[in-house]
């Protein structure tokens, strides 16, 4: 019998939750393609290692942009590869799939995501909004008549939502998140230090010394790249406070969007949020000091969920299980 699965189809990573097993797959959303033959050479972690290191006939493609599909065929190939890798199909049956999307997607984008899941080996495919499943995966009980607020910050999008009675009351989605931060780090290192670095290096800088708040004693890190003038390899040292300045504007955009969502909710739900606080999920929630930054501006307690990277996939799987139990009754 096929095992049902929850999929977090992220711009940066794909995570898959298998019923009864939990989150069993977490790989980068990257596919390496031979441009001469259009043949897929590698998917996931193997393809990610090739980014910025390929010969001219091999292209490392990210088939998702800002939380939606930008290359349908490659997305479908990637999903098929991951689903086959997990051996979740039964002898004569296909797994039911719960897949997630940002709150502001169009009907066409929505259909493309569902079609990709169906064609990659899914049986019945359901689509749910990311902040809703992220809240479930983070352990919030969104089915009661009380307000919960979640800010899900991934690679391509940041989704902010207030939930009650199992659904979204108010939400906002920004195409601003971890990937934009990486691009800003690349641009800043080039403009301020005359050093050209790649996406990998920017991600590493963000993870190792990235911070949402300035420190008196900032961490430092050696960064290697290519000199913009001479073209020769060179290394520099940067500190966390410099990265805070680079990320400041992007983080401020997410904070302002969260303030905007809070301003639209009924007073009863607002008082629930003061009591319960706000839950941060998604990979960008791992940025040092981000909870304090939000708390400072939003004037309510803010906590980072226990496993922010897994929340969407886990919540998708749990919501699918809940729906099936309901249907059996």
In CATH, the architecture of the largest domain is 2-Layer Sandwich
Radius of gyration: 20 Å
Shape: flat
The CATH H-level homologous superfamily of the largest domain: ATPase, nucleotide binding domain
Order of helices and strands: EEEEEHEEEHEHEHEEEHEHEEHHEHEH
Give the tally of structural domains: 3
Give a quick account of the main beta sheet: strands, pairing sense, barrel closure. 5 strands, mixed
Kindly estimate the percentage of residues that lie in beta strands according to DSSP: 25-35%
Number of strands: 18
Can you offer a commentary on this structure?
The chain is 39% helix and 27% strand. With 329 residues, the protein is α+β, with helices and mostly antiparallel strands. It has helices at residues 45-48, 72-86, 107-119, 130-137, 178-193, 199-209, 240-262, 267-276, 290-298, 311-328, and strands at residues 5-9, 13-18, 22-28, 31-34, 39-43, 58-61, 64-65, 68-69, 97-101, 125-129, 148-153, 158-164, 167-174, 195-196, 220-227, 233-239, 278-281, 302-304. The protein has a five-stranded mixed β-sheet with strand order 3-2-1-9-10, sandwiched between helices. A hairpin with a 4-residue loop joins strand 4 and strand 5. The protein has three domains: 5-28 and 66-132 and 311-328, 2-Layer Sandwich (Nucleotidyltransferase, domain 5); 139-176 and 247-304, ATPase, nucleotide binding domain (Nucleotidyltransferase, domain 5, 2-Layer Sandwich), CATH 3.30.420.40; 178-246, Actin, Chain A, domain 4 (Alpha-Beta Complex), CATH 3.90.640.
In short:
This protein is of the alpha+beta class. The chain has helices spanning 45-48, 72-86, 107-119, 130-137, 178-193, 199-209, 240-262, 267-276, 290-298, 311-328; strands at residues 5-9, 13-18, 22-28, 31-34, 39-43, 58-61, 64-65, 68-69, 97-101, 125-129, 148-153, 158-164, 167-174, 195-196, 220-227, 233-239, 278-281, 302-304. It contains ten helices and 18 strands.
